[in-house]
Design brief:
One of its GO terms (molecular function) is catalytic activity. By secondary structure, the chain is an alpha/beta fold. The protein has helices at 49-56, 99-107, 123-129, 163-173, 198-211, 223-241, 243-247, 253-262, 267-287, 306-310, 324-328, 355-378; strands at residues 4-11, 17-21, 60-65, 112-117, 132-135, 155-160, 188-191, 215-218, 293-297, 332-335, 338-339, 342-343, 346-350.
């Protein structure tokens, strides 16, 4: 079990160390998507645009990361390329699909890592591994040189062990990102109608109360429908992108079965999902008129045991609170958070193209947490 499928040294020797998910092109290296079907892939002819950007920022690539095959899974299990160990919670799955990227950061192998997020594939492993992760506004960060070539959901996003490094990573891959100077406290709105387990929801509520951060409590009525619609869209789009690889007969049994089933998604299901996309996106936009960020758990429950996932179990409900915001396109940031010693993460969701505000709100939350901790220690 490993985090990297290959090592390399590319970029400024003193730059931040970066690991790249193996669905993102690096010139001179094959992009194998964690799949035996791509073992004979030819080296990429040019860098993905995000790779060009981070090298221009003076950062250093040290390797390509293992991933869930074809980025089509939530556990991070990969019997062909290897399953990364979750360094901070080794008995639990690393999460998928950007498993190696999250694990590399959690283990200290990289200062930051790039992954891709089509249905939670940055935020879910970030929560599982106890690190920070960010999905930008859809379309804000270039996907040129990233598999799949076409997607209405997928975003390139970074992982880091701390918020400051995460922001440096985001600035590197998004040259338009300009950190905002905080002039007022962000308004937080806790989403209370999630499918999170009662213990998880209660823990997050107590945490916010302990920070004395002013916040309101709101509902997202279409949250569950958006999750189901997001599944329909990703199934239809991935079935189309992966059809040739499926036909090769070389995919792992789990991904092959899921991809075959995904190919049965009807045009009517996709049309219905697009209607939900429009309605849910408008719903989120409306709620964000009265606050800067929505707050909710990143995972509805703690991750499953690694041994159960290796035995073939999976749990698509892991993405129930992440996937809806791929459908709507809103930026979302995950902060490490434990409940009873197990990781679930906190997710902050912001207005479209207000990615910088989401980072500022996260910084406010962390400062409030530090102040509460210091106050407790001094009493």
């Amino acid at each position: 079990m490993t985090m990297l499928i290959s090592r390399c040294e590319l970029g400024a020797p003193a730059g931040l160390k970066v690991v790249i998910k193996d669905s993102i092109d690096i010139a001179g290296m094959p992009t194998r998507l964690g799949s035996r079907a791509c073992d004979d892939a030819r080296p990429a002819e040019q860098h993905a645009e995000v790779v060009e950007h981070l090298l221009a920022a003076g950062h250093r690539i040290v390797g390509k990361a293992v991933m869930h095959e074809l980025a089509f899974g939530v556990t991070g299990i990969n019997h062909h390329a290897g399953t990364p160990i979750n360094a901070r919670y080794p008995e639990l799955i690393p999460g998928g699909s950007s498993s190696g990227s999250a694990a590399a950061v959690a283990s200290g192998l990289a200062d930051y890592a790039l992954g891709t997020d089509t249905g939670g594939s940055v935020r879910v492993p970030a929560a599982c591994c106890g690190v920070f992760g960010f999905k930008p506004t859809f379309g804000r960060v270039s996907r040129a040189g990233v598999w799949p070539g076409s997607s209405s959901l997928d975003c390139v996003g970074p992982f880091a062990a701390d918020l400051a490094t995460l922001q440096l990573a985001e600035q590197a891959i998004d040259p338009s990102f300009k950190p905002v100077t905080e002039t007022a406290l962000a308004r937080f709105a806790l989403v209370i109608n999630t499918c999170a387990q009662p213990a998880v929801a209660a823990a997050l509520n107590r945490y916010l109360e302990s920070l004395a951060l002013p916040h309101t409590r709101i509902e997202l009525p279409l949250l569950d429908e958006a999750f189901a619609a997001g599944l329909a869209v990703i199934n239809a789009e991935t079935a189309q992108s992966g059809a040739e690889l499926l036909a090769s007969g070389k995919l792992g049994a789990d991904v092959a079965a899921r991809l075959s089933k995904a190919g049965e998604t009807s045009a009517e299901e996709v049309r219905a999902a697009e209607q939900v996309r429009s309605a849910f996106s408008a719903e989120v936009d409306r709620l964000l008129e009265s606050c800067e960020v929505l707050v909710m758990p990143a995972l509805p429950n703690s991750p499953m045991a690694l041994q159960d996932a290796l035995a073939g179990q999976t749990d698509l409900q892991m993405t129930a609170l992440a996937r809806p915001f791929n459908l709507s396109g809103h930026p979302a940031l995950v902060i490490p958070f434990e409940v009873d010693g197990r990781p679930v993460g906190i997710q902050l969701v912001g207005r479209k193209h207000a990615d910088e505000v989401v980072f500022a709100a996260a910084q406010q939350l962390l400062r409030a947490a530090d102040a509460a901790r210091n106050n407790k220690d001094n009493n």
